[in-house]
Amino acid sequence: MIIVFLIASETLRAIMEWKYAENKKDSIATIAEMMFMISIVLITIKTGFFGLFNI
């Protein structure tokens, strides 16, 4: 659910930046930031929160 919300909100933000910002390349930075956040969330979930919940 977190990933879906993250993708939706950051995609909307990138679209708005592309349409209405003076510097259109800001949307590329937003998309790169979104990919980074998604990868961090997926890595954290995949590793079991880096072993925090392993007994």
Mean pLDDT: 87
The helix fraction, in percent, is over 70%
Number of helices: 3
Q: Any low-confidence stretches, pLDDT <50, length ≥5?
A: none
Give the strand content.
under 5%
How many domains, as an integer? 1
What's the number of extended β-strand segments? 0
Q: How far do the termini sit from each other?
A: 26 Å
Shape label: elongated
Helical/strand content category: mainly alpha
Order of helices and strands: HHH
Q: Major β-sheet, in short? A: none
Radius of gyration, in angstroms, nearest whole number: 15 Å
Pfam families: DUF4181
Keywords: Membrane, Transmembrane, Transmembrane helix
Protein name: DUF4181 domain-containing protein
InterPro entries: DUF4181 (IPR025441)
Topology of helices and strands:
Blueprint (H helix, E strand, L loop, with lengths): L1 H19 L5 H21 L1 H4 L4
Helix pairs in contact: 1-2
Keywords: Membrane, Transmembrane, Transmembrane helix
Organism: Lysinibacillus agricola
Pfam families: DUF4181
Architecture overview:
The protein is mainly alpha-helical. It is built from three helices and no strands. Helix 1 packs antiparallel against helix 2.
Feature tags:
55 residues, elongated
